[in-house]
Amino acid sequence: MSPLERFKDFNIAYQGMFYPMETDHMGHANVRYYSRAFNEAAYFTFTTANITPTYMRENDRGMAAVTENFEYKREILPGDLIQIRTCFINFTPKSLHVWGVMIDACTDEICAINDQVCVSLDTITRKSTPWPEEILEKGKKLVKERPVL
Predict the structure, then answer these.
(1) Range of 63's domain?
(2) What is the rounded CA–CA span in Å between residue 61 and residue 112?
(3) Which of 2, 39, 96, 144 stands 20 to 30 A from 88 (CA)?
(4) How far apart (Å, rounded) are the C-alpha atoms in residues 89 and 98?
(5) Rounded mean pLDDT of 21-38?
(6) Is the dihedral of CA 30, 36, 41, 42 positive or negative?
(7) 3-state DSSP call for residue 45?
């Protein structure tokens, strides 16, 4: 089964074209690009559990990544059209775990995989803090089993 078909029920959390300005000295995607694209995808995924920019601003809350892992599968070259599909693979009273797969939308190839654990942060005390009950319950309902590739 193709990646686009296999992950059709996951969030389309990011899509766009890879631009030449984001290449490294070898002419393919630099690490900063992967980090930015997966970070944007993660923030979109947060909104599916009602962790929105408005919620964070109005409640002095933020997110802090505590671990992040990348697995690079195929080079991305300028002009490639990519899509990142994501899901939660864990949601606890103070943290969440986002898993994402970057797919070339034209060739249907997996380019990279990312997973990151983030904690709910009180932006005033700069300490982790529990989610409100409604966010925790919504987030738990969105958890999927970690995909095996």
Answers:
(1) 3-142
(2) 30
(3) 2
(4) 6
(5) 91
(6) positive
(7) helix
